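Design a sequence for this backbone.
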């Protein structure tokens, strides 16, 4: 993530990369609660689309819109509590055999440094796949937060 711009602006760039448009936010009245994750908000946006007679929406676009809404919510917080994520806080998920895996905080704030650190951990356990997440809302549960980058031993890092 680029630390020179706000996280909502970065997520807006991501939205554009998946074919979405930030003007779509005006179609939604939903405001995320403090304890909601990106997945919770994406589901609410899908539900709101359907209840207003609009198509349900593409999962990638809804997820990106949810990331923006969560970011805006977090940016407006007067002071973030200790369990809320801050810029540069990444988590590594390592995917092991049979659907098991691990999730651990990454002690690096620069994304490239985080990738180097993470790849060493992935290689150390002999895994083939991993992902770096920005833990939106402070959640450290597997599969939560905003996906920053994926790792596949055959491909390397990719967004």
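Sequence:
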């Amino acid at each position: 993530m680029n630390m020179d711009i706000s996280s909502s602006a970065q997520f807006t760039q991501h939205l554009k990369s998946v074919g979405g448009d930030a003007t779509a936010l005006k179609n939604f009245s939903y405001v995320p609660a403090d304890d909601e994750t990106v997945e919770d908000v994406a589901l609410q946006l899908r539900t709101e689309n359907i209840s207003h007679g609009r198509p349900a929406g593409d999962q990638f676009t809804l997820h990106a819109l949810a990331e923006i809404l969560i970011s805006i919510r977090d940016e407006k917080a007067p002071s973030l509590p200790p369990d809320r994520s801050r810029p540069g806080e990444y988590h590594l998920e390592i995917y092991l055999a049979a659907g098991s895996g691990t999730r651990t905080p990454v002690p690096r704030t620069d994304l490239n440094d985080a990738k180097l650190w993470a790849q060493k951990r992935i290689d150390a356990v002999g895994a083939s796949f991993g992902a770096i997440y920005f833990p939106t809302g402070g959640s450290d549960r597997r599969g939560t937060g905003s996906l920053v980058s994926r790792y596949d031993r055959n491909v390397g890092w990719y967004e």
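Residues 7-76 form one domain.
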